[in-house]
Each structure stands twice: as C-alpha cells, then as structure tokens.
Amino acid sequence: MLPLFDPNDSEAGMKLLEDLTSNAYQIQQQVLQQILATNAGTEYLMGFLSGQSDKQLFKKKVPVVSYEDVKPYIERIANGEPSEIISAQKITELLTSSGTSGGQPKMMPSTAEDLDRKTFFYNLLVPVLNKYVEDLDKGKGMYLLFIKPEITTPSGLMARPVLTSYYKSKNFTNRPFNRFNIYTSPDDTILCSDSKQSMYCQLLCGLVQRDEVLRVGAVFASAFLRAIKFLEDYWNELCSNIRSGHVSDWITDLSCRNAVSEILLLNKANSDLADLIERECSGSSWEGIIKKLWPRTKFIEVIVTGSMAQYIPTLEFFGGGLPLVSTMYASSECYFGINFKPLSKPCDVSYTLIPSMAYFEFLPVQRNVGDQVVHCNGTVSDQNCLEEDQNDKLVDLVDVKLGQYYELVVTTFTGLYRYRVGDILMVTGFHNNAPQFRFVHRRNVVLSIDTDKTSEDDLLKAVTKAKLVLEPLGFLLTEYTSYADTSSIPGHYVLFWELKMKGKNINVEAELDGNIMEECCSTVEEWLDSIYRRCRKKDKSIGPLEIRVVKQGGFDALMDFCVCQGSSVNQYKTPRCIKSEEAIRILDSRVVARFFSQKTPSWEPFRMDIISE
Ligand code: AMP
C-alpha cells in the first residue's frame, strides 16, 4: 500500500505529498478498510465486531480507549501469547513510550511493516526540506542521535524506545545511498550504548568535518542543548584529539573507537583546525557558537514545539539567528505529521497529518479563557474515562474545523484501535484536503524537561511521600507548586513549598534542617516515574530537583496574581505548575531557602515480571 518513491527525486516526492493530501478522505477510508479487513479476526476486534470489517460498525461498536484498556493485551503478548490477540501481523517488538502507566513506560506494539512505514515517512521529509533550503546535497548533517537501554520481555520480544528500534534496524543501517542523508556521525557512534562515549565521538566527528556541515540537529531541542553543554565541558580534550589525530583512551567501545579513528585519519592531525576551535570556544561568550563552529550551517533541526518550546531562547542564543526547524510530529504509537513549512517561526509551526500512516479521528475539546482544557461535556477534569456516547463525538480527519481543538485518536496498522494519544492539537489550516495542526500540549502533563512527562498526579504522589519526611518534625506543607527551570543545562524541576510549624506561629526558616530538606528533594525524585529517573540517572538530561521554601503568604500573593489575571476567587485552586514568568517571579521574591537533591534516584531498566505481577 505504501507508494515507492526515490527521496532524491524532489519533484516526485512533492507530487506524492500533493496526492496524499488531496486524496486524504479516500486514503483514510482505504486505511481503515485495510486495517479492519486484516485484523477483524483478532481477539480484540472480535469482541466488538464479531468478525465483521464494516467501517460503520467499527465506528459504532469499537470504543475509544486509553492505555490502561489495552495494557492487559500488550502484557499478554509480552508474556508469550500470540500477536493475533490484537494484530494479524506479527508483533515483532514493543516500543517503550515516554508516557508512563503505573510508573513504568507504556509499551506500544510494532511490526516489521511498520519500520517500512517509518522509512517512508522519513523519506517524505526530504523533498520538503529541499524545497525551502537549497543545496543540502552539497554537504553533511551533524545529527546527534542516540540509543537508549532496551530489555527483553519474558517471551523474548525486545522492548525499547522507538528511535532505538529504528536506528538499530536494517532500514537505518542499510539505508540506501541518499545524498540528502549523509551524516557526520558514523552509525557505530550512534549505536554505541554508552551515551557519554557516543556523545563525545559524535561531536568529535562533527568538529573534524566542520567544513562539510550544512545542518546540525538532534531529535529534540533538549538533546541538542545537552550536546552544547557537553561541548562546553570537553572542547579542550576534543581539540587535543583533533591536534594529535588520536581519540582519547577512555573511548573504549571498539566499534565506536575504530569508526572515529578512521575519520580522524582521513582528516589527518590538524593543528589549524584545533587552534580555530579552541579560539572560538575560549571566547568570552558562546553567543552564536554554532555558526562559528559550523559556519556553513543553514539551520538547526530540532523539535521545538510542545514542551520543547521552553528551549527556544537558549537555542536562539547559541544559534545566533539560525532558523530552528521542527520537521515532524511522531510518537511510539505511530508517526503522525510533517511540517510543510520547515522555515516557519517555531510559534507558527503546524504539522500536516499524513493520511496513509494510520486512521485518524479527533475528539473535540474546548479551551476556556484560563487556558485550561475543558472537555465538551463541561468538566474540567482530564481523567481517562470517557462518556459512553463520546464515540459519537469523534470527527474524521477531513471533517475537523479550523480553529477547533481536538484530542488525537488513532487506529494503527499495529494493533491499536481508537486509541487516545493524549495530545491536544489545534487546526490551523489545510494543505489541499489534509488539515494542519498546531501541537497545543499533552493532556495531563505539567512538567517536562527532556522526554519525561510528569502529570499533576505523579507530582502529588511524590510530594505526598516527601511530606512524610517532614511531618514527624512538626512541619506542615500548606501549599506547593512547581516549574521546569531550563535557564541552565540540564534543566531541573523546581518545587515551591510553603511550610508551617504545627501549632506554632513562628518563622519556619529558622527551624529548617538542610539535611532533612535535601532528603525531601531526593524523596520526591525517588517517587517520580521511571522515565524521570532514567533521565536523571542514566541520560543525565535532568539536573537535581530543587525545593524553594517561600515565606508565609507567598501563595496568597500567587493567588492575588492569578485572580488579577482572571481566575475566579471562588473557584481558585493553586496551580500545581506555573509557567508565567511573573508568577515565578512573585514566588521567587519570597524564597527564604533553597535545597537541592544530593542523590541520584535509583533507576534500572524496568522488568516485565514486575509489571505484570
Ligand atoms: P513517545 O511516545 O515517547 O515517542 O512520545 C511521543 C509524544 O511526544 C507525542 O505524543 C507528543 O506528545 C510528543 N511529541 C512528539 N513530536 C512532537 C512535536 N513535533 N511537537 C510536540 N510534541 C511532540
């Protein structure tokens, strides 16, 4: 069903995109028909459709579901039952998503064919970039790409993040020679499981080949900024490697070492290059450092929409005016959409969903003045339960309305049926007959630094555990809120706490014990989910959690501010996460003490046997 095309042929690529978007309705119908015809006999669909593959029946009978509904099926597959429970095609691996369930990563089914679908999707990005940026085939891309830990399920299936799966697949490593696809990082450096060695080697290769680099990037903005921080810490050593032509001894991963040594050899020991990089890096400011180190770079390709938007100012500082390009919108469940105007400003980025990737439906949501997502049933609650009749409210891809907000629901080729992705999107326009969406936010996520997604409930659970450390000492936590502080790299979670002594009206700050407060910081971290703890411990992409204690009345001042902004006094609830700079400033100006976690939280790859207990 996937049309073949050569990504080097821009004209053919653009024509294909025109066809896909012009025929969005027909393609969506075919996709649903194909998914139903193939999978009608699965245990899951049998339960609702009794073996029929009628599209109208599907819409009437198959419920809209969340992860908790499909989790038992996925766990059965992980434990060795056949794929046919949910998918006629063999489930070849499980993709661990950054969303969590019960503190553990969610797992999405994947098939061999799905890898081809992803490759098709990546190929579609090529003509779009070429349309707006000339001569990308005249040089290389310095893309800093990484793999993450994987586990094997009891049945022997691999469970790992979607990009790890893709980079390790033949589709990536045997990618046909494609002149728009030449990276400075040898595959062995991308596939190195030691993230520090991987980062060092990829930066070394990128620096050595600086004259050839026409674009730089990473998948998410957070990863790219981590690379800049790494460069800040290691430029001296990197320069000395370039000068001597030898890679540092601590690079012990053999395939990685060999690949980098080969590149160093090709480029010969190079004192001039080392001097030049040293000069730039030792300058008084790193403003525009990317342009200085890679002068031919035309743009920085990183996702800067959604929670990644918080990194735009920092990226602009280092990029010195280079465009920030968010090319795609994707997830472990499915790859969704492409940005047809890659050079548009980050705030104007919209993604066009590609109609052949899955069957897309949309659950309307409303936004109120307070910027809060409110379901059309009028509740502000964002719980996973759906009213029974909400099946009727789903809208097809081609029927969404301009300016309206929706939650994305997908039916995939890999065994997810009417699955709520959890992303809220807004329709900004149409490309031919295919709607374009701005990513608004992820349902129920309040804090995110890297791939972590912490909900209000997750935060409450962790704070409740930390409170237990303080309570025996007579302290009461009367209010709390939080924000993601990304002013330094890596960013970290900040909690504002207002404390009170039980029965006494005294200044708490005099009584605060630093060790105990640090223990509170680590307790919160220990009780946040496994993705947070992985980012903290393994990826080091999140810094130590901080608690800022504010003086009495700090949260009253926050309430006054929110009321001024239009919240109703009667209905006011302390926001558990604040984003407004003014709100943060109000609390910051009342901070009496700050404490940081002194321990890295525990983390090990999750274990299937524990999950399924
Ligand atoms: P995961 O399943 O861990 O790969 O996470 C997928 C989620 O990341 C999506 O459902 C979105 O919430 C978020 N995401 C992916 N791509 C983008 C994007 N281009 N802009 C904003 N958020 C994104």
UniProtKB/TrEMBL annotation:
MF term (GO), any: acid-amino acid ligase activity
Domain GH3 middle as annotated: residue spans:
351-442
Per UniProt, residues of the GH3 C-terminal domain are 458-582
Q: Name one GO cellular component term.
A: cytoplasm
Keyword Ligase among record annotations: yes
Q: Which InterPro entries match?
A: GH3 (IPR004993), GH3_C (IPR055378), GH3_M (IPR055377)
User: Mind listing the UniProt keywords for this protein, alphabetically?
Assistant: Ligase
Entry keyword annotation includes Aminoacyl-tRNA synthetase: no
Q: Which family does it belong to?
A: Belongs to the IAA-amido conjugating enzyme family.
Q: What is this protein called?
A: Indole-3-acetic acid-amido synthetase GH3.17
Record the organism. Ziziphus jujuba
